[in-house]
Each structure stands twice: as C-alpha cells, then as structure tokens.
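## retry 2 of 3
previous attempt timed out at serialization; input unchanged, resubmitting
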Amino acid sequence: MKYAIIIPDGCADEPQESLSGRTPLQAARVPGMDEIAASGVVGRAQHVPAHLPAGSEVATMSLLGYDPSTHFTGRAPLEAAAQGIPLGPHDWAIRCNLVTIEEQVMRDFTAGHISTREAGQLLETLRLDLGAGVWEVHVGVSYRNLIVFRAAQAGGPFSEQTRTTPPHDLTDKHVLDAFPRGPGSDLLNDVMCRSLQLFAQDPVNEARRHAGKPPATNVWLWGLGRAPTLPPFGEQYGQRGAMITAVDLLRGLAALIGWERIDVPGATGYTDTDYAAKGRYAVNALDHTDLVCVHIEAPDEASHEGDTAGKILALEQIDRHIVHPLLDKLRACGPYRILVSPDHPTPLRT
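## retry succeeded, writing output
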C-alpha cells in the first residue's frame, strides 16, 4: 500500500461575493481533486483542538497522526528542529519575524518579504546588542527567523501561560494590545523594543526606503516553546514517510518523527513556488518510501494578501502539477490511499 497526503495550506475559505457566492476552491478548475471527491470520501475534520492555536503547527501534527493535545509545545521548537538547532530540556525557542509597524499598526508581517541577506544583516546588529549570554539569534529564510533563550535550569522565565500573538493575525490592526504578556513577557518586549531602536537608522532600512520598499522596523516575537517529544512515525504506524515542503515548521516536524525531508529546487513557500518540481519529487519519492506528504504554502500566502485570483491560481496549479501526477503514480503502484486536506482555513478577509 502506498499513501500520499497533499496539504494545500489555508485552502478552505468563505463564499466570496466576487465569485458569485462560491469559495475559491469551488471557483477553481481542479479536475484531479474533483475525481478524488467523486470516487472517495468527502467530509469535515477538526485538526485543531479548541484550546490550542489554530495554526499549521497544531493542525499538521493532527494530520500526521499525532495528538497535539499531548505533543504540541509551540511552533518555534519545530522550526528549530528544521534548522538543526539543539534545544536542552529547559531552553525555549522563539519565532522571530521581521515586520513593518507604522503608527502602531502592523502594515506587513513579512517586512516586504525582506531578503535573507538583509535579514541577516539586521539580526546581526541585534545579536551584537544582546551580547553573549542567554540569547541566541538564528537567521532563517527571509522574515522567518528564530531566537533561542538558553535557560540554565528548570523554572525559567517563560511558561505555558506566556501569551504571544502571530503577526499575520494583526495585519492592518493596532498592535498595542497584542504584545507578549504573562511570565517572561518583559524579556520578550525588551528585545522587541531594542530592535525598534537599532533598526530605525540601519543602512539596510535606509536602502529599502530609498528603493520604495517597506523597512523592517523591528522584530516580533511569538510562538515560543520547548522541545517536544514525539515517538517515531515508523514505530507508531510501521510506515516510512517523506516530507516535501518549503516551510520550516513542517520540515522540523518531519525531522522529529523520523521522516525523510526532501529538498526541492524552486520551492519557495510562496505563490511563485515551482509546483511542477514538487510534483516530480513527490512522484519519485514513492519509489523508495511508503508515504509522501506534499505541503504547499501558496494558498495561505494568497489569502493573507487578500488575493482571490492568486488563491484560485495556486489551487489550480496544485491540482495540475501535484494531484494529477501523484494520482497517476499511485495507480501504477497498486493499492493506494490519497488524502487532500488543508491544515486550517485562511479566509481571504484576513
């Protein structure tokens, strides 16, 4: 038996007036998904327990067969695993976005999709200011980065009651009531305020303003947690798995459960990703593994940008270049199961 899981991130949406009351998925031409729906089982699933954050970090854990109520500790530890950053039992990983805030309003949670080179230069300035000690700054990709707090012993400054807000939930909203709160929040807020002062006149931002690009005004810290303990997928289900994604949190989850992580050239985690390449690599993976999971971030990104046409196009590309080739491959392999499911809805109004 061969298995495939396709996750069009944030695919589910609300009926749109501009689409005559249809959702983007209903408006998209997706014959591959239509075929699966016609010959398979269509239903609803709640991937996120009511008491946990409604994000990919929780939902994907559910999709892969791990109860997040038992295993979820935070988003950032999964991303740390993707980057190979070791976490001790008392350490805390913290997601560090570069953002654009103007007049206390979150104008852009990506700082204009800042380049990794520019992000690295800004974060090096922050690292030098924080000095050697409990804070470690780790550059990721573009606006998506990490900070690690190295705690010497149990009972550190943070806890499960420390509350943070994902910056993508704040687009065009005032941020004054969204700063970290609870145990250790003073430390997080201090780092965020430091970055605001450090980045204000930084040459990177001066150049971005001159080029008409949004500056990275500061870092936004969120999604903190300690390292989770996850039993290997092979022990749980007796299957070998492989993950194809450009998003660190899924790469980290794959690493923690013992899956192969397949790097695909041209996979960007954005709407310009190489859909065809992801499809080809997924098809080839089935030659040596039992289950392949393909995650595509593009529908979610289009939703966050309010781009209805872009979301429809992303879904059509997923169907043409990933769903269809995988269906053909699975049929040739013999008995198979295929699941197409978003991790969570991302309404275009966000």
